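During the no-cost extension, the postdoctoral fellow (Dr. R.K.) reprocessed legacy sequence entries with the updated structure-token encoder. One reprocessed record is reproduced below for audit purposes.
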Amino acid sequence: MTDTTRQTTADAITVVPANEATWDDLQAIFGTRGAPAQCRCQWFKFRDREYQTVSVEERAERLRAETGCDHPEDGATSGLVAYLDGEPVGWCAVEPRTAYVRLLRTRIPWLGRSEDKADDGVWSVTCFVTRVGFRRRGVSYALARAAVDFARERGARALEGYAMITTPGKEITWGELYVGSRGVFAAAGFTEVSRPSLRRVVMRIDFAADER
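Re-encoded structure tokens follow.
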């Protein structure tokens, strides 16, 4: 698929806060096999080895409670759900950075930066899931764009992601790209603020700077 075709498809995608989606729709996106079905977007929610002590069923229940699916009357949620022609096709986790316990304890995102890790005015995009059968159709691009508005409208001072650096002609498995690619964030208006490793780059939007 060309970039133009991918962008056209992304423009046709609608994105809603997860609490405005149904739990069945989110279940369809995560599926029943593979890393998303096992993780249920809980990797960054636990300290170190704690993740391994929690069953898949409990991870799913935690995700359901965090998203508030089926409860549009609630204002709180932990992410976004994308639809294409009425079909649920993607998920994006976006919350205050302090919600991600493992992220705060991981060394790489902080290399070369002096940041207050306890600053809940900074939000993070930590995970993208695209439903099997809908990949390479711009779903992550649409979700990243929506995450910007979502965080800004809820009072975030800044939004950042921890993207994979992709190399033309070199294949990267989908599992490694759950954090999103540099291109996905760049297309949504994020800029690079640090490159802590050969494979990772911190991408960020400072809303306070945008408003000046």
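The mean pLDDT is 89. The CA atoms of residues 79 and 93 lie 4 Å apart. The remaining legacy entries will be reprocessed before the final report is submitted.
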